[in-house]
Amino acid sequence: MLDRKDRSPDLAEFVIQGINKDGTPFRPSNWGERLSDMLSTTGHDGRIVYSSYLRPMVIQGIPSVVVRFSLETADPHAFELVRQFVASNHLTVRAGRSRVDAGATGLFPTISMERRSPKNNGW
After folding, report:
1. Could you read off the pLDDT of 78-98 as tens digits, one per residue?
2. Which of 14, 66, 67, 104 has its CA 20 to 30 A from that of 80?
3. CATH number of the domain residue 33 falls in
4. CA distance 107 to 72
């Protein structure tokens, strides 16, 4: 899936799951945050702001990282680091959302550095 020839043109993203190919959980447990820190910034309030290209999430109870395919165009080196991380740690990868579901427009998905507002989220 990480190779262009294996991708569906309708996909906007893929999901790296915290499960090795042999079915065991990947350790350390905060691997997703560590990987996502590669493209994160710090907001004015000192909180981490993850890039919309690379985000840690827990999906169906599994620590995961969602990666937008447009990262390959925006930062080829970072995309290659992600590919190497997946390969060297024998992690499971699955398809993510389609371009329509992810809000993609044109050739590549729309990328935004959205920021949650404390007043809207009850922080």
Report:
1. 999 999 999 999 999 998 877
2. 104
3. 3.30.70.2340
4. 13
